[in-house]
Structure formats: structure tokens, C-alpha cells
Amino acid sequence: MRYALYFTPPKDDPLNGTASLWLGRDAFTGETYPAPEHPGLPAAEQFELTAEPRRYAFHATIKAPFHLAASVTEKDLIHAAEDFAAVTPAFAIPDLVLGQLGRFFALVPAALYPPLQLFGATVVKSFEPFRAALSEADIARRSPEKLSESQRANLLRWGYPYVMDDFGFHMTLTGQVPEERAGVMRAVLSQRFAAFTGRPLAISGLAVFVEEARGAPFKAHSWFPLAGAKN
């Protein structure tokens, strides 16, 4: 069993609904959906290109998946997440946009936003006591030889390369899209998520996701509202 601390909108939020239909699975309910049809993007191709993010479901990674330390239990983690959310103020990313990170697409902030960076760092630090140390195999899976010096240091210290100064908030919408299909994918996603881009995104909660076995779909175990979040 692995656990992760993610940001995702509340279960009934329209963004979660739209993204779940796009990816083909809802992390809260476990419901699956057929691939949507779009001009120029066959359903079979869309389904293939969303396979990887479908397993993780719609989210932004705050503290990456980890095994629990031997000294703590799932109940301890859930109580800590609830307590953390209760004293951590909700806030909003000023401007959400569709971004392309290498060959995959995601919803990202239009610019670096310090309160978001601070939130990410605080979650990583606060929940570090719950994380079991990485195995040699876990470290090798991250191909540390391909990481920057700071990313390697993060991997060894925090269990994940992309934290602290290397943290980049993103809510993944595709896997690796072939270069020749990127234009079509951007057009489809721009239309499908038009209601959510070019405007703020409320960071209103913290979710605990679980992976019951390595490679299994991630599921939302708990979602806790941050302090002052509007219901």
C-alpha cells in the first residue's frame, strides 16, 4: 500500500467532473467512462494517450506516493492530514492555463506563485515523518543519473525529485503525446477545459490518495477542506 498527498478539487466540483470524463476515471467514486469523441482525435487514440494519468486520476502531486514508516499507521496519517488542513488557509492560484510540459499536457499556473510554492514545501516537510525511506530499487526507478543536482538531493532527502525549488504544480491531462499530434491535442484540450482556464483555481483542500498495490489505480481515500474554504 502506498499513500500520496494530492491536490484535487472536491468530488462534486465541475473541474473534477470534466477532468474525470476526459481521463476516463473518477478517483472519488471509481467510476470509469468511455473515451470522448473529438474532431480529429479518435476515441481510441484519446484513450491510449490518457492511460498513464488515468491510473493516477486527476490531481496535482504535493507529496509523491510513499510507503508508511513502520512507526505510524494509516489512521495516524489520516488524522494528521485532517489536522493539517484545518489550520492551513485556503487560497487561489490567480490564473490557471493549459500548459505543455515536454510532451504531455497539464493545467498549470500561468506564472510562479509563491504561496503555492510555500504550500507545496510545507506539505512535503510536515508529512515527512510518515514516509518510509526509499529502497535502492525505488531510487533507481527515478533514474537519478538523469536528474539535476538539486533534484537528486531532493530524491534522497524527501523521496521525490520535484519538490522545494524544483516543485512545479501541474494537473496532468495526457501521457506523452507524439509531436505530430500535439497541435490537435492542444486544440481539443483548449476547448474542453475552456471554462476553467484564464481564471483562478481555488486550492481548497488536501486529499489523501491510496494505491492498494504497485501499479493499481490510485483512489481518493479522504479529502479535507483547508481552513476558510468555501463549500
Number of domains: 1
Largest sheet: 4 strands, antiparallel
CATH architecture: Alpha-Beta Complex
Distance between the termini: 31 Å
Strand content: 15-25%
Low-pLDDT residue spans: none
Radius of gyration of CA atoms, rounded to a whole number:
17 Å
Q: Helical segment tally?
A: 8
Estimate the global geometry from the Cα principal axes.
globular
What strand order characterises the main sheet?
2-1-7-8
Q: What can you see in these coordinates?
A:
By secondary structure, the protein is of the alpha+beta class. It has one domain: Cyclic Phosphodiesterase, Chain: A. The chain has helices spanning 14-23, 43-49, 51-56, 74-87, 114-126, 136-141, 149-158, 182-192; strands spanning 2-7, 60-66, 91-101, 104-109, 171-172, 199-203, 205-211, 218-225. The strands form two sheets. The protein has a four-stranded antiparallel beta sheet with strand order 2-1-7-8. Strands 5-4-3-6 form a four-stranded antiparallel beta sheet, covered by helices on one side. A hairpin with a 2-residue loop joins strand 3 and strand 4 (104-109). The longest helix is centred in the middle third of the chain and has 14 residues, at 74-87. The radius of gyration is 17 Å and the shape is globular.
